[in-house]
Amino acid sequence: TPFLLSQEQWNFGCNLMSTEENSWVLKTTEAPAPVPPPCRSPEQRLFTPNEAQHPPSEMEVQVEERCLEQVQTMVVGEVLKDVDTACKLLNIEPDPLGWNCVHVQKWLLWTEHLYRLPQVSVMFQELSGRDLCSMTEADFRQRSSQFGDILFAHLDIWRSAAAMKERCPPEDTADEDSWSDVMCNFPNQPIHLWQFLQELLLKPRNYSRCIRWLNKEKGIFKIEDSAHVARLWGIRKNRPAMNYDKLSRSIRQYYKKGIIRKPEVSRRLVYQFVNPVEWSARGE
DNA sequence: AACAGGATGTC
DNA sequence: GACATCCTGTT
Q1: Taking the CA atoms of chain A, what radius of gyration do you get in angstroms?
Q2: Which PROSITE patterns does the record associate with it (predicted)?
Q3: Cβ of A3: how many Cβ atoms within 10 Å?
């Protein structure tokens, strides 16, 4: 796993999330009740016969691991979001290694304010981000016996977040027309209209409002917003004057070629791929 | 407004 | 060849 919160960070994060003043952290998502079930008490362990307390099956273990993974992904996502917000507010970069003394002070003041710590930033004056990163937890404690560890843990979270960003760069979460879909990743790579339509159909999360499957197995799809689909096609092909009249003419060219046809019962804005087996057979 | 398909031009 | 554009006519 590329990113694992230490137990300490985890607990720290949980405490932060359960602090109700911190609407800043986790405002939309429910706090994911991340506290692991307490270990079975010693007497339970002693007095429960092995047969009755059947060990978790492999599937149960897998399910649990997947749950944990999901929770972890969620927490990491929230942390990254929070880091982003703070960076914008403070006008600093996410990676502490790039901070100068002023940035460090900004970050300290922010952290103090956010978690209601007393003023400890004075103890960290004249330190750059690089200095901060080279310090051990003991060094932090030396400067602030009470809150050094908290600051250390928090800095570690930021460093981890920066490392994460480095590892998996700009994941675009655009909900509407994610630009990379419409513009192709490879400049001017020729694309066929039927391929483009399939691309849109593959991403219902982004495009189901303008085009969606009616029957995926049979390859029947419906264009819900003809103008929108035409606009997307026009962007991809660099044809600003594209409209549904012209797009549909191109679809009709497919009739003769046996790529797309009208379904048995012809319906408005509904078409059907002739051989949907080819791509559904390759699994999804 | 969508549909069908011929004609013609473009890359 | 695969459209893009324009057009006539139909549903």
Answers
A1: 27
A2: ETS_DOMAIN_1, ETS_DOMAIN_2, ETS_DOMAIN_3, PNT
A3: 14
The kind and range of the H/E element at A211 are: strand A211-215
A177 CA, B6 C1': Å apart = 35
Q: Chunked in runs of 10, what are the mean pLDDT values of chain A (284 residues)?
A: 45 42 41 47 47 60 56 67 75 87 81 82 88 91 90 89 72 53 63 96 94 96 97 95 98 97 97 80 50
CA of A204 to C1' of B10 (A): 34
Q: Which amino acid is present at A1?
A: T
Per-residue flag: A244 CB under 7 A of strand C: no
- Nearest CA-CA partner of A34 in A2, A63, A5, A3: A5
- Domains with residue ranges and CATH for chain A: 64-166 (1.10.150.50), 193-273 (1.10.10.10)
Q: Which residues touch strand B (CB under 7 A)?
A: A 226, 244-245, 248-249, 252, 255, 262, 266-270
Residues ≥6 apart with Cβ < 8 Å to A153: A8, A9, A12
